[in-house]
Design goal:
It contains 16 helices and 11 strands. The chain is an alpha/beta fold and about 375 residues long.
Length: about 375
């Protein structure tokens, strides 16, 4: 069966569109948790009814449920994107367990645009939140769609940072399109719909369950050109997403963190195992430009090149000056500078990675290589 339209819109008055939508929703209801069987059958029988027969499903359509599902999609202004549609994202289509049907609220065109997936710990630290905001904001400002999972912590920070710079973001859900999880993110979901989209592979009315999140995670990575993990414990869903991304051939980036922080144990392990070290958003952009995902940056003009030969000298920051005066803990340093600890995180990370500052066993920070500090 050829599709009557690339997108199946529940408000489309054409009978053939309404009929196709109901057939695909019936397949989704029966096979959403068996995506590998569904796409294997669809590859041989693109008609959803024939695919169900190949999978041994003889359950007749539930007319009352289909009526309610179509009404829900219409009310939510959601459209259906079948696996056989030319608008289905190609990388996601190539998965052996690709979602047979995607339900999209907002702009479905975002699924075709270059994207970066940003995931991390739900119980994010101040450091993680600052770094996620910086990376998501700069990557979104550069034209990438920020993909994440609408979860607490790093996910919500990434969505919010993309929106704050006027960028676009895509939230992948582990529930039906009519449900927002967690419930406290109703406001964030409304903002995402204004500048982005919500997408799910689950039928209307489906409540989130633990087993649904691994499916969501593999879809998050499949909708992106690269993956960034900001914070993760040694066992976390973010590491599952990283595994999916690596299996899908994506470049995986991880933000390093303090060895003493449990939420950095997973990202530090990813780096040890071969993930790229995310020291700045620019590194990710340059990698995507080399791969042809993004256009190359314009060449600098002669004035820019001349100016770059004589960089302005930088003065030591207040942070460095304080540590040169006396080693202190992160909290003591924040108190001395009258700043929130998270506002020091990015500069401290740069200094630690440069080998200019270390953290002693007692938790005190000190400058060990003044020559590596700008302006000294």
């Amino acid at each position: 069966m050829s599709l009557p339209a690339p997108l199946l819109d529940p408000t489309d008055p054409r009978e053939e569109v309404a009929a196709a939508l109901r057939e695909w929703l019936h397949l989704q209801r029966l096979l959403a948790l068996r995506p590998q069987d569904a796409v294997a059958a669809l590859a041989k029988a693109p008609d959803p009814t024939a695919a169900l027969r190949r999978c041994g499903e003889r359950t007749p359509p539930d007319t009352a449920w289909l009526d309610a599902a179509v009404a829900t999609l219409s009310r939510q202004q959601a459209v259906a994107l079948p696996w056989t549609s030319p608008l289905y994202p190609e990388r996601a289509r190539q998965l052996s367990d690709a979602a047979p049907l995607l339900l999209v609220r907002g702009d479905p065109g975002l699924l075709q645009r270059p994207a970066v997936a940003i995931v991390g710990a739900r119980a994010a630290t101040g450091y993680g939140r600052v770094v996620a905001e910086q990376f998501a904001g700069e990557l979104a400002a550069a034209g990438l769609v920020v993909v994440s999972g609408l979860a607490l912590g790093i996910d919500s920070v990434a969505h919010g940072a993309a929106l704050a710079v006027g960028g676009t973001t895509l939230a992948v859900q582990a529930c039906g399109p009519d449900i927002i999880y967690p419930g406290r993110h109703h406001g964030l979901a409304r903002r995402i719909l204004e500048q982005g989209a919500l997408v799910t592979e689950f039928p209307p009315g489906t409540r989130p369950r633990p087993g649904f999140f691994p499916l969501r995670n593999r879809l998050i990575s499949a909708l992106a050109a690269t993956l960034l993990v900001v914070e993760a414990r040694e066992r976390s869903g973010s590491l599952v997403t990283a595994t999916h991304a690596a299996d899908q051939g994506l470049e995986v980036w991880a933000v390093p963190g303090p060895l003493s922080s449990p939420t950095s144990a997973g990202t530090n392990r990813l780096i040890f195992d071969g993930a790229d070290i995310a020291l700045s958003p620019q590194l990710i952009l340059e990698s995507l430009q080399r791969k042809g995902v993004l256009p190359p940056p314009p060449p600098p003009n002669r004035a820019d090149r001349a100016g770059s030969l004589l960089p302005a000298a930088k003065k030591p920051s207040a942070l460095v000056s304080a540590l040169l005066h006396q080693p202190m803990t992160r909290d003591e340093l924040a108190q001395r500078l009258e700043l929130a600890p998270e506002n020091l995180a990015v500069e401290l990370l740069e200094l630690e990675l440069a080998g200019a500052v270390i953290e002693d066993r007692d938790g005190r920070l000190r400058v060990v290589s003044p020559q590596k500090v700008p302006g000294l």
